[in-house]
Amino acid sequence: PPPPPAEKPHVAVIGGGWAGWGAAKALSEQGCRVTLLDAVPDPTGATPMRSPTGKPVEPGVRGFWKDYPNINALVPELGLTEEEVFTPFTNSSFYSPDGLEATAPVFSGADVPTLPSPLGQVLATFELFERLPLADRASIAGLLYAMLDFDRDEETFAKYDRMTAHELFLRVGCSERLVTDFLKPTLLVGLFKPPEELSAAVAMELLYYYALAHQDSFDVRWISSKSIAELLVAPLAKRLQNEYGLTVLGASRVTGIDVDLGAPGAGAPLVSGLRYATAGGGEARLD
User: Fold this and answer.
1) What is the pLDDT of residues 83-132, one digit of tens each?
2) Cα separation of 140 and 278, whole Å?
3) N or C, which terminus of the chain has less Cβ within 10 Å?
4) Rounded Cα distance, 72 and 102, in Å
């Protein structure tokens, strides 16, 4: 059973994004007294932020991939249905500096056979390249072998780790256009570096786990209407406030954390409180 109210530990959660609300939910459900602080006037979603043109302004993730179990489980917890909250799954797209290069197929609910990775994804995506000629698409075959081979044992992994991703692409016969228009943009998005600066082993891990590891993991859908704050954050905030006594402090920018060092040898220091700027320009303290 949860501890009596007087014994509940008080935890401050700084920030009302997905991580902050997830932490507030988990801590509240575990019996903690929780205060959530955020610099925006109303982090509960009851008063959504709008741009000057009236569009919703929301920090953080906007697309919802199939493998988001916490968010998917939250929807029925709030008494909502997925049809109320999300659009159907849509295609993901890959762009190069020249424009759209390929679209990833939607596997969820589609009549697409489930084949071993990466074979299933490659076969399903093969016809969805917008500009890449067939010969350049086919040149990825050698890379598929490398993807299955690079981590079969420590010695092989070390061999791939000693060469750059660009060297590997050339060795396995990937065409220059496949590298320039598809592989390089994918690595720049995932690892923020071109293949010439990346270990081949690291690049293979990214390409496998980011794009190929699970056939339907990258099916993505979006919020169906209004905003994430209105459809998900607002009912979650209301539930945590009503059921667990969550305190939410909007327009409260944290300016400092007070730490109690204790006596020498007493163990790890403890956070005794924090200070935050209020909407009126003053400063307050939270114990």
Assistant:
1) 999 998 887 776 767 777 666 667 666 566 555 554 555 555 555 566 77
2) 57
3) N
4) 27
Amino acid code (one letter) for 218: F
Span 3-20, pLDDT tens digits: 665 678 999 999 999 999
pLDDT at residue 64, rounded to an integer:
87
Alpha helix (H) ranges present in 193-260? 200-206, 228, 234-244
Question: 43 and 248 in contact (C-beta within 8 Å)?
Answer: yes
Q: 187 vs 35, 141, 179, CA distance in Å?
A: 40, 18, 10
C-alpha dihedral, 213 to 92 to 95 to 142, nearest 10°? 30
**Residue 163 confidence (pLDDT) above 80:** yes
Query: What pTM was estimated for this model as a whole?
Result: 0.70
Residue 51 carries which side chain, given as an amino acid letter?
S
**Alpha-carbon distance 221 to 196, whole Å?**
34
Residue 218 CA to residue 63 CA, distance in Å, equals: 10
Residues whose CB is less than 8 angstroms from the CB of residue 222 and which lie 6 or more positions away in sequence, other chains included: 62, 63, 64, 86, 87, 90
Q: Are 223 and 85 in contact (CB under 8 A)?
A: yes
Paired tokens of 63: 């697309």
User: Which stretches within the chain are classed as H helix?
Assistant: 18-29, 69-77, 82-85, 119-125, 134-138, 141-149, 154-162, 165-171, 176-178, 184-191, 200-206, 228, 234-244
Cis status, amide bond into 118, omega within 30 of 0: yes
Q: List the structure tokens of 74.
A: 């939250």
